[in-house]
Design goal:
The chain is mainly α. It has two domains: 11-298, ABC transporter involved in vitamin B12 uptake, BtuC, CATH 1.10.3470; 300-333. It has 14 helices and two strands, in the order H-H-H-H-H-H-E-H-H-H-H-E-H-H-H-H. The protein has a two-stranded antiparallel sheet. Helix 2 packs parallel to helix 7 and helix 3 crosses helix 10.
């Protein structure tokens, strides 16, 4: 894990991602990796509101569906160019998230989570039943691929892979700037204690709402990329199963860490693909593996590593102070 510390580590990860299509044996694996990148973008957003702000949002997958359906409806039914629809997906998701956040964030703890779970189900029903807008259970077919930019074209699996990778890199960079800023410290203060945050002069409602909006904007853009990649949308995208997948990615990788959602998404995706030969029985193997991982690594892979590194650093500092104290005592004697 020491290899992925700092800028050099992120550069190594970027190099590996750039080189993956060169060694991938077929376009199927490239498409799977592209979908993993999209889910990682959504997981980054969920980690902001859950990991850094301490609000367990169970409607995140539904917001991803809102972004996807915004692109699907605008491009298929109204012939809006893809990139305009893509930008509007972020706007629509952010505005909807703002008003839902104003309502839901008045609640705390489990009440907030239950409320967002209800919101998720309401959004799912709206997508399934509002046939004149969303096409209902039939779904939206024929969504165009992202339109080209100058000489660049995004109508092949390889081109879409690099396009989504670029958005993932941008999402990581923006998230890093957020969590390392004064705003990010405000989010973490709210996570640690509402009362302490208020004592420090932090406006709880404004801070929570801002975190909620930023997180669902990530989900909205991820959904927009999903629509351009898969080219078909159905109501299942708004189901709670998508949210639970995103939660699993964050938990496996490490809640409240920048690298955790990426590690969790890629590891779970790789395990899922590796166990496909078991067909209907792969969850019998995958389920216990996931349970064991959560039991023995409750802070996730990255979170556990960070805690162990911090303990080692504390032990080294304690040994150094003890050695200095002994040396000074001997010199004084």
């Amino acid at each position: 894990m020491r290899l992925i510390e700092g800028k050099a580590g992120w550069a190594l990860l970027a190099a590996l991602a750039l080189a993956f299509p060169l060694v991938a044996p077929n376009n199927y694996l490239i498409s799977v990796a592209t979908l993993a990148f999209i889910m990682a973008i959504a997981a980054l957003g969920l980690n902001l509101i859950t990991g850094y702000t301490g609000q367990f949002n169970l409607a995140h997958g539904a917001f991803m569906a809102i972004g996807a359906y915004t692109v699907g409806i605008l491009t298929v039914d109204h012939q809006v160019p893809f990139w305009i629809a893509f930008a509007l997906a972020g706007v629509v998701t952010g505005v909807l998230g703002y008003f839902i956040g104003l309502l839901s964030l008045r609640l705390r703890g489990h009440y907030f989570s239950i409320f967002t779970l209800c919101v998720s189900y309401i959004l799912f029903l709206l997508i399934e039943k509002w046939e004149s807008l969303t096409h209902g259970p039939v779904g939206i077919m024929g969504i165009p691929a992202p339109s080209g930019m100058g000489p660049l074209r995004f109508d092949t699996p390889l081109a879409q892979y690099y396009l989504v990778l670029a958005f993932l890199a941008l999402g990581i960079w923006v998230m890093a700037r957020i969590v390392r800023s004064l705003l990010g410290r405000s989010f973490m203060a709210v996570r640690n204690s509402d009362d302490l945050a208020e004592a420090l002069g932090i406006d709880l409602m404004r801070t929570k709402t801002l975190s909620f909006v930023l997180s669902v904007i990530y989900a909205g853009f991820a959904g927009a990329l999903y629509a351009g990649q898969v080219r078909f949308l159905g109501p299942d995208l708004a189901s709670e199963a998508v949210t639970f997948d995103l939660i699993m990615f964050v938990l496996v990788g490490g809640v409240g860490t920048l690298l955790g959602p990426l590690v969790g998404t890629f590891l779970v995706t790789w395990l899922t693909q590796s166990l496909q030969f078991l067909q209907d029985y792969r969850m019998v193997v995958f389920g216990p593996l996931l349970v064991a991982l959560i039991i023995f690594l409750p802070d996730g892979i990255v979170g556990t590593w960070l805690k162990r590194r911090a303990r080692r650093a504390d032990a080294v500092q304690a040994d150094t102070r003890s050695h200095v104290a002994v040396t000074e005592a001997k010199s004084n004697a």
